[in-house]
Amino acid sequence: MNDSISDGISAEAAAAPKTDGWEPKIVAFCCNWCSYGGADSAGMGRFQQPASARIIRVMCSGRIDPLHVFNAFLEGADAVLVTGCHIGDCHYVNGNDKTKIKYKYLENVAHELGIEKERLQLNWISASEGEKFANFIRDVTEQIKKLGPSPLKPAGVV
Amino acid sequence: MKGSVAVVGGGIAGIQAALDLADSGFKTYLIESRPSIGGVMSQLDKTFPTNDCAMCILSPKLVETGRHPNIELLSYSDVKSISGKAGDFKVKVVKKARYVDDAKCTGCGTCTEKCPTKVLDEYNAGMSKRKAIYIPFAQAIPRVATIDAAKCMYLTKGKCGVCKKVCGPKAVDYEQKDKEIELDVGSVILATGFKPFDPSALSQYRFDHPDVITSLQFERLLSASGPTQGHVTKQSDGKVPQKVAFIQCVGSRNPRIDRKHCSSVCCMYATKESIIAKEHDPELDITIFHIDIRAFGKNFEEFYNRAQKEYGIKYINSRPPEVIVDAKNSLSMKYEDFNSGELKTENYDLIVLSIGLDPSDSTQGIARSSGIALDDFGNIATSIANPVETSVPGIYVCGVAQGPKDIPDTVAQASAAASKAASLLSKERGTQIKERKFPEEKKLSPDPRVGVFVCHCGINIGSVVNVPNVVEYAKTLPYVAHAQEMLYACSSDSQVTIKEAIAKNNLNRVVVASCTPRTHEPLFQNTCREAGLNPYLFELANIREHCSWVHMKEKEKATAKAKGIVQMAVAKSALFQPLYKQQVSLINKALVLGGGVAGMTAALDIAENGYNVTLVEKEKELGGMLREMTELYNGKKPEEVLKGLLRKVSENKNITVLNEAKLEKVEGYLGNFKGIVNARGKEIPVDFGAAVIATGARNFEPAGLFGYGKDSNVITQAQLEKMLGKGTSANTITMIQCVGARNKEREYCGRTCCTDAVKNAIRIKKANSKASVYVLYRDMRTYGVNEKLYENARDLGVIFIKYDVERQPIVQNGSVVTVHDSMLNEDIEIASDLVVLSTPLVAGENEEINQLFKIPLDKNKFFLEAHPKLRPVDFATDGVFLCGSAQAPKLMDEAISQASAAASRACTILSREFIETEGAVSVVNEAKCIGCGTCVTMCPYNAPSLYDATVKAEEVTYTTKKSKINPAACKGCGSCAAACPAGAIIAQHFSSKEIGEAIDAFDKGVKSISIGKDMVEVTV
Fold this sequence. Notes:
The complex is a heterodimer of chains A (158) and B (1020).
Chain A lengths: L2 H13 L10 E6 L3 H10 L8 E6 L7 H9 L4 E6 L10 H18 L7 E5 L5 H18 L11
Parallel strand pairs in A: 1-2, 1-3, 3-4
Helix pairs in contact in A: 2-5
Chain B lengths: L3 E5 L3 H12 L3 E5 L14 E2 L4 E2 H14 L3 E4 L2 E9 L2 E8 L14 H5 L3 E3 L8 E3 L1 E2 L11 E2 L5 H5 L4 H5 L12 E7 L1 E4 L3 E3 L15 E3 H8 L20 E8 L15 H15 L4 E6 L9 H10 L4 E4 L6 E2 L5 E6 L6 E6 L1 E6 L1 E3 L1 H10 L24 E3 L9 H18 L25 E6 L11 H9 L4 E7 L5 H14 L3 E6 L2 H14 L7 E5 L1 H5 L6 H19 L9 E2 L4 E5 L3 H12 L3 E5 L21 H14 L3 E4 L2 E9 L2 E8 L2 E7 L1 E4 L3 E3 L14 E3 H7 L8 E5 L16 H15 L4 E6 L9 H9 L3 E4 L7 E3 L3 E6 L4 E6 L2 E4 L3 E3 L2 H8 L26 E3 L9 H19 L4 E2 L5 E3 L9 H5 L5 E10 L2 E10 L9 H5 L5 E3 L4 H9 L20
Parallel strand pairs in B: 1-2, 1-13, 2-5, 13-24, 15-22, 16-17, 16-22, 17-18, 25-26, 25-27, 27-28, 30-31, 30-36, 31-32, 36-47, 38-45, 39-40, 39-45, 40-41
Antiparallel strand pairs in B: 3-4, 6-7, 7-12, 8-9, 10-11, 14-23, 19-20, 20-21, 29-48, 33-34, 34-35, 37-46, 42-43, 43-44, 49-52, 50-51
Helix pairs in contact in B: 1-2, 1-10, 6-7, 7-8, 10-16, 10-22, 11-15, 12-13, 15-25, 16-17, 16-22, 19-20
């Protein structure tokens, strides 16, 4: 609504990555109360980011089943992001604590499967951290672009 | 008598009071003079001591207030006068002209974008510009534009008119006039807040210099939505500062400018702002100049300690007399370090003035026009025993309008004021409220027929995403029976269009591709419901926040992504099933644990609201700590308060008192609890819908400290309090503050001990002016209006000596006290007749109760409230509430406010006809359940439980454990579903199938769809 925002656009847009062919597919699981709100705040603050991610909203990061994560990889995701409220801020008392524990397990399985660690990432993002959300998507996109398509990607999927 | 209430002031206090009243069956008018509700809290970046994002916790309350069927929001409106009497007031309100029709405005922001006139933005404390037609901030409620009539070129000069030209819904109306209306209400609550102190009155602080700013301006600099997107820069040259100083008590604790009060919040907000600034830039050098650091609230002392130890923020005990601006325009300060006596000069890049809270103009104005008494400080006058009652019966007050206080105390008082208004009008409860009526739901046909509505959002989406292209694409997707574009999907005419499309195309799923479900889902769900569709058959595809706004320079990619997002939403929605909130009956009775002043107040308030209460007290008599007190800090006798309370409790037919009693067992959930109370060996069953925990605290026994227990001359402040009931013959009395508090074992501040000590020091001096009273302290924490007690004590000759925590006073033989005066930097010996140790309150036997109700304790074993800021008397467990010193030490008026608040919160439940459960709850597929109990251990709400089930399989019948989930207790987080090893739990609306379909649909074939030739691009 003010000048500084429109100034922000051009600066952010200038920093957006170059469009050179392949764009990774990133599935980001976001909890309704914090990280989804963070993605909203990124929008409200016009924090530009690559168009590589699709958000799957769940009420709590505790809802994210390891099966959903592998489902995403098997459907061709090049990276999967698990995000939620900062520890202590969970809307459901301690859902993100459970996510943290599950994530440890997920990390191990992903490692066993030969999935690079950049392809599965955990991040706590509050509803106010729009810039953090945008930076996260940008960083992951850059990392995955260097790695190339996921080894689990089924044949024929772009 | 009217069943309606006017709440004046739409800050957090007014919002909370309005929500409580509206939830307990009263029609509520919320009157706010600014264009949006939210008050000063909406301007804050974070809140102390948890550094929660202020807007994140406030915004849901704003939305809830804006949507509540029983709240009529009168924003941009001023109260002219209040007349009448309790039960029947007339409130004259002026609705100021916005020059925008709020029924037509969709809040799209196009007018704001195009308006050529720039004005200083008050939301950013004057540090950026807004337009003459504006929406004050992104989360504003109502989300309606307002024209600043003093600055608008059309309204001042008759030129321009751009906003009217660009407004799609034709909402701009230059002919609008102020309108006066009169409200008939039964009660009025004043929540008129405060005005930040204007530091230009103190010219020595050089507020005219661009790098001398107020704490509120610094708060905006820290905010991501602020003028610098959260980067702290100097206003003079835009550079990053290296050295920052805060000056505390600017406009507080200063009798010379008639500001005798302590503003209560500045020490903590300066600490908070310093911590956040250090988190942004760890290289920053920050110094806070202060008189005392008043970290008196729950977890404040810990926060203050962290600021020093973890963040390296420097606290200097000094009040610099002036800010010096040299010839090069750089800033410096000369100050005397009180701790060392040294005179120092230091340069700073940025100086922040921690401005105090002044009574607001509307507080003063309404008080004068309506004959409501003010106190010495210009706040609405109240008393200790009746902290929310003004001098006019039926008019109540809450928040800073009553005196400086922080957010949780404000929220508690707001609920307290609501409780008082509700008990006054309890006979009229439910007479003026509305309930939404909906048509019957259509029978769901087996095949999904999805309707897709793609929103342009003016130019917000349409200028980046090719909306017609997305619509054409949507038409090619499976199950899609209808797709169309909309200029503003959220406008009221669009709701009509959506409903017509549902009827015409026999749609049974609806996807709107527009903005975030966090704000707009309820609106469209409501529209679906009005069209006979279950609200859970709706899905939002967020193509604004997550697409057009973040890919503004990549139109093609943004369009492709928008198609992808719509595709995922359509795939998911096809699986949606109708879900229903269940209505569960409830017991309209309450249980109050603890019969002290908090417990009795809570019980009385609930009883006066018309509900039965069982009051459980462990001692023989009611009264708790009030029985130990001999004088209140306003000079009144506690017996009078106690007698009054006891009489009211015994006379009230709704209250049953159980003495020498203890709650032994509880089971159940919100609305339906069952328990067993053991009263004098007899087991009495109790059933209740809500419970209030008011079990208080106890005095810390300083065994072995300063000779306590060995020498009879060494007593505690509580013992002195008792002794002073009869008077003391001691001539020299030395009080030592912070005994057993603010140390390694007990990090917290006792909050009440400074006020108690000062009160008793005054009593001694008043009884015997020749007596010598010494108070050895670390920081005097007589916060808020109690600062006046500290001033009185000094006037009466009480001597205050500051000691350092590293050099504790020494008491020899119970009579000679040696203390190192840290200000004079020398040792002082005081021959004392009496040594009084001020000890904090410590937690009582809370561990038994926390097990019974499964409610958490904090690290000091006090009860842990649901949220330290906005839910100070709630527990995370629904239906259980908290008040008084069981939560943390507090003064009597604060305990009483909290008790009424807990009562108000309990009444929002007790006043219901039924309890409505969450719709999207988890359910167990019994056939798959293996009875392992993982879900039981996983759930923080005790929703799943195991029961013995008889299973028949292949001619064998056996008994096994199965899980079932109580929908009344389930909050729908889905953690159990993710944890179930058998995949037996379905998190409805977020089932693995639904999530899986959305994942499968990720960009499936988006790029292979060709775009029709006959499509026309729509320009707005």
